[in-house]
């Protein structure tokens, strides 16, 4: 009977100045001291589970909230999205695969598993250079790699010589990949991919902080056609419908999960959420909408209509 190979770590180090990190302090200032517990537990899930990443889905947020006091699943999700936005976790991999990881986490994982026969990592998730992988690979892999034939591997195989990658589906944290797959299938069956956003029509939306004129706003928010499967009128927009939307699979870097978290945080109505999602092309990295969120946070509640304000920012800078 073969022995089950251990993936995660029994413990992980944490810098003594973790709470002094600028990004961490910004999150704690906005969400309270409880944000530290959320971030610490997220790191624990990462290192104890796969060792270098965790899949951030609804089950993950609920599991994390269950281990904390006075934190709901939505509250945990909001804090995690801020951590992604501020660079604590890698934005690109979170947007593409819905996972939490970083180069520092992967570096620590490989360093802690150097004594193992092999450190398994998914090649698509790797953020480290070949030089770093060569220095952090297990000693057994280092010996075997010196005997490899010249020209045997291409660029991807070079990484595999340094670290044994695994592309198999695995469980993340305490929840099952089977449940996650079922949830993804249900979402895919009930949703359709939206077309990319169209340029605004009508008059200029005005400067930042000003309300968008009623004619333009109606055109931005109103759906295209009823035959697309989307609501036929403005009053029919619901949060449940917004939650079924999926970004297009065109390879463009996005932070769609972070976009949704921020829209919910500022209590923006579903109709305005839909307009912002389309005009930001599902939260493309570098879109003016992210600058708009930063301005909302710095305004300390002075901007009373955050949805219209974000639309005005996108329209002015697009």
UniProtKB/TrEMBL annotation:
InterPro entries in alphabetical order: Lin1244/Lin1753-like_N
Q: What is this protein called?
A: DUF4373 domain-containing protein
Record-annotated Lin1244/Lin1753-like N-terminal domain positions:
11-105
Cite the record's Basic and acidic residues compositional bias ranges: 147-158
Acidic residues: which segments have biased composition? 210-219
Annotated region described as Disordered, given as residue ranges? 137-160, 189-233
